[in-house]
Structures are given as structure tokens and as C-alpha cells.
Amino acid sequence: MLADIKSQTAEELQAQFRLWQQPAYRLWQLLEWLYAHRSTSWDAMTNLPKALRGQLRTHYSLGALELLRKQGSRDTTQKFLWRLKDHSLIESVLIPASPSLYGEPSDRHTLCVSTQVGCAYGCRFCASGLEGFKRNLRVEEIVEQVLAVERWNAQESSRSQVESSKPDATQPATGNSQPATDHRLISNLVIMGMGEPLANYDNLLKALKILNAPWGAGIGARKITLSTSGLAPQIRKLADEPLQFRLAISLHGATDVVRDRIMPVNRKYPLRELVAACDYYQHKQGRMITFEYILIAGVNDGLEQAGPLAALARRLSAKVNLIPYNTVQGLPWERPSEQAQEAFLKALQKQKVTVTLRREKGHDIDAACGQLRLRTEREMVA
Ligand code: SF4
User: pTM of the entire structure?
Assistant: First the structure.
């Protein structure tokens, strides 16, 4: 099988171009086609000599994700369901920085990307783990989630520009029909989609290197948040990386009793080990850690959890994100009442913790990770 060109760093491609005795500028032309124009065909790369395009074609594949389904409207949270070459399904979620509540479209967007097909970690409340683990995503499949969403956005923008430039007797012509092909839509990444990101460590780190590079998608490392359910050894490894990413811990319980009940990973890496790894991360990277805490009725929303959670947050100077649970079809867990959510929030605030309570954006579009995939797969076999 050929390596996909989008799994290669500029350094790797440079080595190949040297073997082919190509001048350095040819590489920059190629990278521009891949990451600025987001090309999906060798033939489109018209400023590369035909012979070089032939060499590239025989050495590398040039894949693109196939959009199977999309939910949500352009100004709000949108969920993309992609079909991979082996027919596996994965999801990405596009979140506007500030949804246009008052009709003003936001320009900055965050993309939540998947790193695995399914997940082996089996958190009891999560749709992604329900059907088990299939495989790790390859480097290019992680990179492509960003490029494919931007490609889709460019096509939509061109389409709406064509629509709006259709002669309208009631409006003056603007003459502005330039397609927005090179516009960078995605400014932030959260690695919180399907899968445990740090279980696919090498592919993810290589993909992030490509997405971070100025010749790639140019997304700043500080705008990239990696989340983990608590793989302590990989947190330590991440701490030693030169790129400074943000780290979010999917905590969801402040004691081993609660975490053991809903997150099997805690039996392997109990809180003591997880906290020690977070300490190390903070010491090496000097970056604030975030605790993601999904509030589940009767499981972890009791006020007796607020004390240990506040203690952990204070110890690591961590910020806490409270997320009311999104019900998943086939799972027994429920979202706490708004009163219970507020009480939990207040208990943390009282203990001087930096905390936010957010309504999950896109609650109505199967926003909990893995739900759209799960529903589509079930429909396909029905
Ligand atoms: S919450 Fe994350 S780690 Fe846990 S099963 Fe779901 S995808 Fe896997």
C-alpha cells in the first residue's frame, strides 16, 4: 500500500525530492496545493511538471474523506460523519467560537476531531465505546478531518456566492464572486472526538505536527487541546514533547470509587498516578490543565464530590469544565436537573475553583461523541 502524501512531514518529502533531484521550490508548490488549496487530485497541481506529478502518483496516494452525513446548520454546531476507505465511520464536530445568536456569522471555529474508530476504553457513559474498538486512525485520516471540513466550507461559500451573484433586479450587482478556497476556517482544535487520543500517540503527534506547521494547516500548538481519559504514562511522554499543547483530563469523578464505577481506565491508572503525571506535565510545560467533568445524575453530581474535586483542581491549579450529560440511546445515565447543576457549580465556586458550566453545544444533534456514527451504523444493519 502506498503511503498517503498527507501522512508525510515537509522533512520527509524534502528527502524524497532530493532523491528525485527536484529544486526546493517544487516542494513548497506541492505543500501549497495540499494545505492551502486542499487539492484532492494530482492533475489539479498544474504548476508542477507532468513528470513530477507522475512520480508523486506512483509513490504516494492522495486520499480524501468522504462525507456521508452532516447535521446542524452553518451558523451553529455542525457534525460531520465521514466514511473511510475501509468503510469505517468517524465523526468530527465544528463549533463556532461564538454562535451567531444575533445573526452575525462567526469567523473563528473549533474542530473536534476523532483519533480512533470506536474506543477500547469503555467509559460507561459514552457512545463511542459501545461498539468496541476497531482501529487507530492513520496520520492522514486525522489531518484530513481538518482539510475536508475546510474544503466543504469553501465549496459552500462558493455556492452561496454564486447564489447571491445571480441577477436580482431588486439588488445592485457587487461583482465579488471570488471563491473562498484558501480561507482558513479552523483556528482551534480539540482532540476529544471518538477514541482515546493518547492511545494513538505516534499517529496523533505526527498529524498535529503537520496541522501545526506553517506549511500545513498553521494551527498554533497553544490552540490545540488534547484530552485523555487518564493514560498516565502517555501524559508524561507528552510533557517531554517540544510542542506545547493544552491538556484536558476527562476526569468525571474526583474519587477512585466514582471513577472506577464509570471509567475502567481508572483501575489501571488510579487518581494517585494520574495526578502525579499531571504534576509532571505542569512542571515540564508550565501550562494550565483543564478537568472535563460530565455531570451525570446520581453518579457524580452529589455535593460530596465537590470537595475532592475542588481539592484536586486547587492542587493542580486546574480549571474545571462542567458539562451536563447528553443522554445516549441504550445507556441508563441521565442529565441532572438544572438545580443540581447550579448547586454543584456554586459548591466549587465557593471553594475558589475556576469553573464553568456549559450547556453542550449541539445537544439536539447527537452531540455526545460517537452518537451519530452509532445511529448510522445501526440504521445500516437494520
Ligand atoms: S469517553 Fe473517550 S476514552 Fe472513554 S470510551 Fe468514550 S471515547 Fe473512549
Answer: 0.89
Enumerate the β-bridge partners of residue 355: 320
Q: Which residues line ligand 1 (CB under 6 A)?
A: 119, 121-123, 126, 128-129, 194-196, 229, 250, 369
pLDDT for res 328: 83
- Which residue, chain included where needed, has cell 496541522? 211
Rounded to 10 degrees, the C-alpha dihedral 108/198/93/159 comes to 70
- Biggest CA–CA distance in the chain, Å, is 70
| Residues with Cβ within 8 Å of residue 86, at least 6 apart in sequence | none
342/306 Cα distance (integer angstroms): 12
Using CA positions, which residue lies closest to atom 3 of ligand 1? Answer: 196
186 Cα: distance to centroid of ligand 1 (angstroms): 24
Long-range contacts of 298-302 (CB under 8 A, 24+ apart): 298/334, 298/336, 299/125, 299/258, 299/261, 299/262, 299/333, 300/252, 300/253, 300/254, 300/258, 300/262, 301/336, 301/340, 301/341, 301/344
Q: Quote the cell numbers at residue 362.
A: 449541539
DSSP string, 64-76: -PEEEEEES-TTS
User: Does the annotation mark 163 as catalytic?
Assistant: no
Q: How many helices (H) and strands (E) does the chain have?
A: 12, 14
For 323-363, the pLDDT digits (tens) are 999 888 888 899 999 999 999 999 999 999 999 998 655 44
The single-letter code of the amino acid at 211 is L
Cα–Cα dist 306/351, whole Å: 9
- DSSP letters, 103-132, are S---S-EEEE---EEE-SS--TT-STTTT-
Q: Which atom of ligand 1 is nearest to the CA of 116?
A: 7
252, 300 Cβ separation under 8 angstroms: yes
